[in-house]
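User: quick one, fold this
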Amino acid sequence: MKKLASFAVGVIAPALILTGGMAGSAIAQDKAAKAAPTMKVVLENDKVRAFEITFKPGDENTSVPSSSPRVVRALKAGTLQRIYADGKKEDVVWNTGDVRFNPPSPVAYNTKNVGKAELQLYVVVLK
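Assistant:
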């Protein structure tokens, strides 16, 4: 009986530790794969909200329908992919210095940096 217990501790314990380590690694990879962009608010009041948003390659942002218009300027060039709820995908290419007006959007979509470089946008949301 003592040998059986010793065998169980000697074989099963390392297997459980190894399995736990692999699960932790998979969780870390999943979080890394779904990294969110960083956002720095530079101004917010009752009329506008201005912020810089930086997408590293692979960063994905979950969006909600926007009831407010916004002006967006690219500080660093890159490509964002819009991913709609119905599965439709649309690439939006930004060149440094591009300025766009985005009207209110009743349709929600996620955005993902599908490029190889960091993309940085300056966004002003009109309230």
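User: anything notable?
Assistant: The first helix runs from residue 2 to 33.
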